[in-house]
Amino acid sequence: MNRWSGVEEFVEVVNCGSFTAAARKLGVSTSHVSRQIDALEHRLSTRLLYRTTRQVTLTEMGKVYFDHCNQLLDGFSDAEAIVTQLQTQPQGLLKITAPAVFGEKYIAPLANEFIRNHPKLSVEFHFSNQVMDMIHDGYDLAIRTGILKDSTLMARRLAPRQLYVVASGDYLKEFGTPTSLDDIQHHDCLIGTLDTWSFQNDGLLTQMKVKGRWHGNSGTAILDAALRGLGLAQLPDYYVIDKIRRGELVTVLDEFRSLIRVCGQSTLTTDISLPKSVCLLISSASVFLNTFPGLKKKRLKSLRRSKLDALF
User: Which residue in 1, 49, 91, 242 is deepest, having the highest Cβ count within 10 Å?
Assistant: First the structure.
């Protein structure tokens, strides 16, 4: 039994929105796509898609299965890209911009190892929480988090990150623990660049406006305020995961925790036009970030560090 039978067809139907469009993209007949998905549903003993003459929608089980299968197919694409492009030696200057804390903690070690193994390549970093003008400032690659606004630039999803709502034990003891999204309105929230927080509610992304006495544009400062018991904070995993493990912060509203994407963005418009150094680094970053502790609650099988080194 081929466990992959029907998986590619299923993912393409969801991405394309119809059996006909998926068949056209895969270069096969519509009936072939339909048979493969029927066989897949039979093998899994569950329905993945609701089909009508006008549209195709995912069942609840289909949503879960699609999320995992889509990541696996992205992983295959990454692996093929790495193998193909390792045949060409990257060279020249690579200019990278990334958010300060995330860039220093994750992107710099990745890029440093990349540069160490490619002696003909030079690198210039700029770590800032401000969104840089890639074209004006001449950046080859920008690591972005959250929703991307500039649709003229090519973007590639690298990994999800988790947004935790946390507070100190002392704060929760004094003001109580929120158990619903409505409870947030009765708490002092530590507000960053945006005064809206993101949550997953019944499978849908929900944006909620929050209020509080504390405002600032630094994740590190928000973290310090949370540790001192000044209120609730919503921060990415890489700020808080160690504090949570040591018991210095407590997570709340875990059932509403939201996933935000980390993306690589380039000034060029297609994968084909990307310089080899950029394309290879993006593919390596996708593998690296999806196996790094703290970025995903349930990860795909981790690669050992020795295997990661082999990617470079």
Answer: 49
Where in the chain is CATH 3.40.190.10? 89-159+261-311, 161-259
Residues 253/199, Cβ–Cβ less than 8 Å: yes
SS3 168: coil
DSSP assignment of 200-247 equals EETTEEEEEE---SEE-S-HHHHHHHHHTTS-BEEEEHHHHHHHHHTT
Q: Where in the chain is the domain with CATH 1.10.10.10?
A: 7-83
Domain 7-83 classified CATH 1.20.210.10? no
Please give the Cα distance from 113 to 132 (Å, whole number).
Answer: 24
Taking only the tens place, the pLDDT of each residue in 68-126 is 888 888 887 777 776 666 556 677 788 888 888 888 888 888 888 888 888 888 888 88
Burial of 301 (0-12, 13-18, 19+ CB in 10 A): exposed
CATH top-level class of 161-259: alpha beta
C-alpha closest to that of 164 among 228, 84, 222: 222
Residues 234 and 290: their CA atoms lie apart, in Å, by 22
**How far, CA to CA in Å, does 161 sit from each of 48, 158, 241, 293?**
26, 10, 11, 11
- First-to-last alpha carbon distance for the chain, in angstroms, is 35
Burial of 223 (0-12, 13-18, 19+ CB in 10 A): buried
Tokens standing for residue 282:
């993006």
Residue-level pLDDT at 10? 92
- Beta strands per DSSP E along 136-188: 141-145, 154-167
> pLDDT, tens digit, for every residue of 238-284?
899 999 999 999 999 999 988 766 666 555 443 434 455 666 666 66
- CATH for 89-159+261-311? 3.40.190.10
